[in-house]
Specification:
By secondary structure, this protein is mostly helical. 53% of the residues lie in helices and 11% in strands. Helix 2 runs antiparallel to helix 3 (59-70). The longest helix has 21 residues, at 4-24.
């Protein structure tokens, strides 16, 4: 089924709004999309995929390259979110480490707002304490930010 560009833009706008709300609640997200391919295209791709899966040299990169061949022209159809609960005793353990004057850093690939909510839920960041954000796209910019914080 083809929904057309208007539908796709509307779904994208709504999904982005929902993803932002999910992130503010500290939820883990998963987006769904669809792409229509012919049986011939799939069979050709699947042969490459099977070969990549059994590669003896650089299997991971081979599989990523083959996945990239099919993971395009995807139409976003929605998103969902789940709560990713902390393991038992995480907040208490972090609190004890901080009381012992042990520096604790949180490194994450999450969106900024999600990371902040997780940091608060595990007692790593409390209201009124300094939050050091050194996120960026390049190592040089991260180093520059870190030096400014010193």
């Amino acid at each position: 089924k083809s929904w057309g560009k208007r539908h796709s833009k509307e779904v994208s706008r709504k999904t982005i709004r929902h993803l932002d709300g999910f992130a503010r609640e500290g939820l883990r997200t998963l987006c769904f999309g669809v792409s229509v391919i012919s049986e011939k295209e799939f069979k050709e791709w699947n042969q490459k995929w099977k070969k990549a899966q059994t590669s003896l040299n650089d299997r991971k990169n081979e599989m990523e390259s083959v996945a990239d061949l099919i993971e395009n022209d995807i139409t976003l159809i929605g998103a969902t979110a789940i709560e990713d609960k902390l393991q038992e005793n995480v907040p208490e353990t972090i609190e004890k480490l901080l009381e012992a004057d042990i520096h604790v850093w949180m490194l994450t690939g999450d969106k900024q707002i999600t990371a902040e909510n997780i940091a608060k839920s595990c007692n790593l960041h409390k209201e009124g304490t300094e939050l050091l954000d050194i996120s960026d796209d390049t190592v040089t910019n991260i180093r520059r930010k870190n030096k400014r914080q010193d």
